[in-house]
Design goal:
alpha+beta; elongated; five-stranded antiparallel β-sheet; 5 helices; 41% helix
């Protein structure tokens, strides 16, 4: 029952996210770590904490990046997209620009923050001032195809998901061990 709050404009780019707590999910991961974000909404950290979630990493503005809920299982929630391929934000930007140029959206989308190299950003900025003509789309495509992406988050993402799987596997082993211990105890009681 946590309500997503719309952002004034789409949040798109690569952001340094800081750990809010020490957690085994972060074993072998840099602090801060870069995380792609692409979204129109956000969840309030206060609302999340009130509902029992633990914020484990935060965006530069203090909003939640990743949060967990520990019950019988470990639930991990992400507002960012560490699973994104290095070109995903560029493809999303191109899709949004195409929608703008075709008149399907009113506002020309912002260039993803901290994502493209300076040459690409300069070329995209110049193109943004060229107006709103469908004929500009191939030029956008050409610029984005040649772009260099600033950051790589792949290694940290692989570690994050690997750590999560390791935590789930360790919990599963603990449960099996506990069930075996209980079964042995029951068997001993019956034998006595």
């Amino acid at each position: 029952n946590i309500v997503r709050r719309p952002l004034p404009k789409k949040l798109s780019g690569i952001f340094d996210c800081m750990r809010a707590v020490d957690d085994p999910l972060f074993i072998g991961i840099d602090n801060p770590t870069v995380v792609p974000h692409s979204r129109h909404n956000a969840l309030s950290s206060g609302d999340l904490e009130t509902c029992g979630y633990q914020i484990v990493s935060r965006m530069p503005d203090g909003d939640a990046n990743m949060f967990t809920l520990r019950k019988e299982s470990l639930f991990v929630y992400l507002q960012g997209h560490p699973e994104y391929h290095s070109n995903t934000l560029g493809r999303e930007y191109l899709r949004d620009v195409g929608r703008f140029l075709l008149g399907q959206r009113d506002v020309n989308p912002g260039i993803p923050l901290n994502y493209f190299d300076a040459t690409t950003e300069t070329a995209l900025d110049a193109l943004r001032t060229a107006g709103r003509a469908q004929s500009l789309l191939p030029r956008y495509e050409e610029i984005i195809a040649a772009a260099a992406v600033h950051h790589s988050w792949h290694a940290d993402s692989v570690r994050l998901f690997g750590n999560w799987i390791a935590l789930v596997a360790a919990e599963k082993m603990r449960r099996r061990s506990r069930a075996n211990d209980e079964a042995q105890l029951t068997q001993m009681r019956r034998s006595a």
